[in-house]
Every structure is written in structure tokens, then in C-alpha cells.
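Table S2 (text version). Query chain:
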Amino acid sequence: MTSSLFSHAPEPEPEGKRAPIADIEDSCTVPRETDEAFRGFHEYPHLWWPTEFTVCGEGTHVEFEGGALVETSEDEEAAARAAVQHIQPGQLLELEWNPGTGSTAVTITFAPDGTGTSVSIRHTGFEALPDGAAQRDEAESLWRNVLQRYARFMGAR
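Corresponding C-alpha cell output:
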């Protein structure tokens, strides 16, 4: 007996939702007022951004320029790391972070904390990435290192 043209193939399994991936939340406290802490982060990343977390490597100049966080190599090749979505000097910096496989969101807040400033980073949206769990793990290491280098640059012990 041959199979009929009208036989029904099994229904495909419905595409399930991706499992949630935890946000990254980290913070540090620097011994500066909020405006100065914000300026140190926004105006001087070229002095403290970890080289191992750049696309161009050693000699990279990292800066916020033209509404983006840009890395420029010694050969003057530029790569945008993130787009600035919203900025409130002294308080908030929101970025669309693009690791090359899709966009996620990074929020950096600056709030008074005693005689210093608490700087908090929240990185969200990893579920939208094809390899979100791996990207999250890499980003967690990045932000921990970024905050440590930034805090040291701003005089924290």
C-alpha cells in the first residue's frame, strides 16, 4: 500500500519561548560627587577602559563621540561599541549595546552615596540574542572589570 497524498504529517512542535536569562547588575562607589563621577565615566573612558574588552586591542582609544561609544585603533579604524539612547548628565546614561550579534540595553546610574557616588550598571535583553547565555557570561566579566578599572581611576580603594 502506498501512502496517500492526503495523509497528514505530524504537526510541528510549537516554538517555545526562550528561557529567561538573568540581567547583569553590578555597582561600585567612587569618592566623588555625582557630576564628577559621571564626567569620569563619560568623558574619560580612554584613560581607564580595559584594553582586553576592546575590538581593536592594544592602543585603542575609547570615547563617547557623536552619540556612540566608539573604539578607534592606532590605524584610525573605528568601531561603535554602543549607541547612546538617553543621557542625563550627572545621573544617567542609557546605551544600546551591540556585541555584533544583536542589541541589548545598558543603563548606568549615578546616585549620591554618603560622601561619594554609587555607580550602578544594569545590562538587560540577553534573551533576544541567539547565544544570549554566552553573551551574558562575557558581559558579566566585562562590566566587573570596567567598574573596577573605573573605580580605581576615580580614586576608590
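Notes on Table S2: Helices lie at 34-43, 45-48, 132-153. The chain has three helices and seven strands.
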